[in-house]
Amino acid sequence: ERWKGRVALVTGASVGIGAAVARALVQHGMKVVGCARSVDKIEKLAAECQSAGYSGTLIPYKCDLCNEDEILSMFSAIKTLHQGVDVCINNAGLAHNEPLLSGHTEGWRNMIDVNILALAICTREAYQSMKERGVDDGHIININSMGGHRMVPSADEHFYCATKYAVTALTEGLRQELREAKTHIRASCISPGIVETEFAFRHHNSDPERAAAVYESIKCLKAEDIASAVIYVLSAPPHVQIGDVQMRPVEQVS
């Protein structure tokens, strides 16, 4: 209830986990700025939320997270139109099939830009937004991966896992800095295993059969399961810090 009417930013909100999280927050009465490079799907989701009579609102925003200027412009627009950000959900992430021994630098750099740098920039800007308005109960939630806690035995995933290990470290570093700043703004991390979204099809874009096999091998998590975890984290009492929620399908081995 305390989040009703407050402003949340959800990155990568056009599909999958980001879309499910945005919908859940709108359902709980928040003003949600959902950003992505293409906003068509977010606009459609916003219309669905309105038709469903949800008490919150979804505001689509076009932003390329690989471009710091676009990120800064987005935060400036949020400040102008909605005062600022109270909750930041760093959800955007991607993977490329670029092994350590043979991968292309361009693919590695793209994963660093989205999975690490964009997350760090959005975190910094969200904190500054909260600080300048005296918001002491904000929350920053990083959507991580089980790949941020153990290395997947597949060369195609190794660099991706490295970026997610960085997210694990960044979240803990953030928690320590927030504590040192004597603020009650909280930092949390949600680390899912296999979630049935468009992720595998984008990852294995040249081999759709391989992508489909990922989701057919076991009963996977759903995007809505991760959205529920976000609601759980935000629902914790102010004195409770949930550091890392690790989730995986019951049948997932590693």
TrEMBL record:
Pathway: Steroid biosynthesis; estrogen biosynthesis. Keywords: Oxidoreductase. CDD domains: Mgc4172-like_SDR_c (cd05343). Gene3D superfamilies: NAD(P)-binding Rossmann-like Domain. The lineage of its organism: Eukaryota, Metazoa, Chordata, Craniata, Vertebrata. Its EC number is 1.1.1.270, 1.1.1.62. Catalyzes the conversion of the 17-keto group of estrone, 4- and 5-androstenes and 5-alpha-androstanes into their 17-beta-hydroxyl metabolites and the conversion of the 3-keto group of 3-, 3,17- and 3,20- diketosteroids into their 3-hydroxyl metabolites. Exhibits reductive 3-beta-hydroxysteroid dehydrogenase activity toward 5-beta-androstanes, 5-beta-pregnanes, 4-pregnenes and bile acids. May also reduce endogenous and exogenous alpha-dicarbonyl compounds and xenobiotic alicyclic ketones. It is an enzyme of class 1 (oxidoreductase). The keyword Ribosomal protein does not apply. It comes from Triplophysa rosa (Cave loach). One of its GO terms (molecular function) is 3-beta-hydroxysteroid 3-dehydrogenase (NADP+) activity. This is Dehydrogenase/reductase SDR family member 11. Belongs to the short-chain dehydrogenases/reductases (SDR) family. The keyword Transcription does not apply. It catalyses: 17beta-estradiol + NADP(+) = estrone + NADPH + H(+); a 3beta-hydroxysteroid + NADP(+) = a 3-oxosteroid + NADPH + H(+); 17beta-estradiol + NAD(+) = estrone + NADH + H(+).
